[in-house]
From TrEMBL:
<dbReference type="Pfam" id="PF07992">
    <property type="entry name" value="Pyr_redox_2"/>
</dbReference>
<dbReference type="InterPro" id="IPR045024">
    <property type="entry name" value="NDH-2"/>
</dbReference>
<feature type="region of interest" description="Disordered">
    <location>
        <begin position="437"/>
        <end position="473"/>
    </location>
</feature>
<keyword id="KW-0560">Oxidoreductase</keyword>
<keyword id="KW-0285">Flavoprotein</keyword>
<keyword id="KW-0274">FAD</keyword>
<dbReference type="InterPro" id="IPR036188">
    <property type="entry name" value="FAD/NAD-bd_sf"/>
</dbReference>
<protein>
    <submittedName>
        <fullName>NAD(P)/FAD-dependent oxidoreductase</fullName>
    </submittedName>
</protein>
<dbReference type="GO" id="GO:0003954">
    <property type="term" value="F:NADH dehydrogenase activity"/>
</dbReference>
<comment type="similarity">
    <text>Belongs to the NADH dehydrogenase family.</text>
</comment>
<keyword id="KW-0520">NAD</keyword>
<feature type="domain" description="FAD/NAD(P)-binding">
    <location>
        <begin position="7"/>
        <end position="341"/>
    </location>
</feature>
<dbReference type="InterPro" id="IPR023753">
    <property type="entry name" value="FAD/NAD-binding_dom"/>
</dbReference>
<feature type="compositionally biased region" description="Basic and acidic residues">
    <location>
        <begin position="450"/>
        <end position="467"/>
    </location>
</feature>
């Protein structure tokens, strides 16, 4: 039994937020039933995205619906609020909440009181002041971006197949990925595989016509899988005619021309930015202690250092790694986030019941990465795998980690069916502007794009217009 009624506020619905709330509703089942505890989850989206599956969703191997987990279904004993916490005043135990209805209500954000705070807002893309990046860059952190990128790649193949202008064709078939971490390498590998397969259905586009370029500022890619496997990944990508440029930076992508630090220039309509992440801006809008890198300073018990009733884990938290040397912190990755979430929930329950807290200790076991269908690299428990065995381990590991039996079964069924039938090569770019056709039929123009719609249905999407400003253009 808890010592007093506890209002627990969980900020974020990602790995840490969802898994913490999921375990808390089990650990505090009786307290929730008696009204002694209340769990509120505030998240911008009503689902948790399993990000390791984003590359396969982009390649069409998994349905977008099965990459996400609906929070209201898995958290029936929690109150799920769709919105954003914009500031936290922990001294007063209040958080400033803005919801989709805030603007319409006209009363401004409201104050949300709490007794225990779990900060898990995740991270955001780390961008640099590269000219043209804000106008033309494409991210790869959300399921919407993954599906938009898939549609975009196939659309570029359609443009290349139909144009008579060699400059437009060359730009359409040039794909630049910036960042040699998991997100960049796996997205590039899966999408190149998909596009290579898709060319067999085009009469005038061959795999050799496409340019795939990976730009990495350091001297290696996939550092998590070790130096040897990183070198193998580079050689495997280059064997597929993918241009891997190490110790190279993107200096500009203005006017749809990617300019690299080695002097190379590539006219392109596709620049995918996966060059790391940074702490969520919310952390700077709190009165909690931060490290020099902007993450919450935490103890090995996942409590915010020197601040009672505040907890954090995952990307937002600088957690000491007790299995490593002094001063070392756990890596901000999914492997630690999922395990930290379980211990975080246990420690909150222990704290409410006046019990001793547990210490987080997990030695890094290794990493797996996919380089496309039947291709991968892995470094797990000191063993190095490559090719099909690594790819199979990648799928098996992430299938075991994706939340809920429902999602496991659906993903496994999709993988089985994709092995029996051909790949889907359909682009559904119109999903991003679903009202465009009706607005045109009703005598208007699709709102906000300012384009000429007299050339038929394909002109409805501003991304299809030459010289437009849409980043997917």
């Amino acid at each position: 039994m808890v010592k007093e009624r506890a209002r627990i506020l969980v900020v974020g619905g990602g790995y840490v937020g969802m898994y913490t709330a999921l375990r808390l509703q089990r650990k505090l089942k009786h307290e929730l039933g008696r009204g002694e505890a209340e769990i509120t989850v505030v998240t911008p989206d009503p689902y948790m995205t399993y990000q390791p599956f984003l590359p396969e969703a982009a390649a069409g191997a998994i349905s977008p619906r099965h990459v996400v987990v609906p929070l209201r279904r898995v958290l029936p004993h929690c109150r799920v609020l769709i919105g954003e916490i914009t500031a936290v005043d922990h001294a007063k135990r209040t958080a400033t909440l803005a919801t989709p209805a805030t603007a319409e209500e006209g009363t401004g954000p409201r104050q949300l009181p709490y007794d225990e705070l779990v900060l898990a807002p995740g991270s955001v893309s780390r961008t640099l002041p590269v000219p043209g990046l804000a106008e033309y860059g494409i991210g790869f952190k959300t399921v919407e971006e993954a599906i938009g990128l898939r549609n975009h790649v196939i659309e570029q193949m359609d443009i290349a197949s139909s144009t008579r202008d060699p400059a437009i064709r060359d730009a359409a078939l040039t794909f630049v990925f910036v960042g040699g971490g998991f997100a960049g390498v796996e997205a590039l590998g899966e999408l190149e595989d998909m596009a290579r397969y898709t060319t067999r259905y085009y009469h005038n586009v061959e795999p050799e016509d496409m340019k795939w370029i990976l730009v990495e500022a350091s001297g290696r890619i996939l550092p998590e899988v070790g130096e040897e496997m990183g070198r193998y990944a580079v050689s495997e990508l280059r064997r597929r005619n993918i241009d891997v440029r190490l110790e190279t930076r993107l200096e500009s992508c203005a006017d749809r021309v990617a300019v690299l630090s080695d002097g190379s220039r590539f006219p392109t309509r596709t620049v995918v930015w996966t060059a790391g992440v940074k702490p969520h801006p919310l952390l700077a809008a709190t009165d909690l202690p931060l490290t020099a890198r902007g993450r919450l300073r935490c103890t090995p018990r996942l409590a915010v250092e020197g601040v009672p009733h505040a907890w954090a884990a995952g990307d937002a938290a600088a957690v000491p790694d007790v299995t490593a040397g002094p001063g070392q912190e756990t890596a901000p990755n999914a492997q630690h986030a999922v395990r930290q979430a379980g211990l975080l929930a246990d420690n909150i329950a222990h704290s409410l019941r006046g019990e001793p807290l547990e210490t987080y200790a997990h030695a890094y076991v290794g990493s797996v990465a996919s380089l496309g269908l039947h291709k991968g690299v892995a470094h797990v428990y000191g063993r190095r795998l490559k090719g099909y065995p690594a790819w199979f381990m990648h799928r098996a590991y992430h299938l075991s980690r994706v939340p809920t039996f429902n999602r496991k079964a659906r993903v496994l069924a999709e993988w089985t069916l994709s092995g029996l039938f051909k790949r889907e090569i359909v682009s559904l770019g119109s999903l991003e502007h679903p009202r465009a056709e009706f607005e045109l039929a009703a005598g208007g123009k699709p709102s906000g794009d300012g384009t000429d719609h007299t050339d038929g249905k394909r002109a409805q999407d501003p991304r299809r217009q030459e010289g437009g400003d849409d980043p997917f253009g």
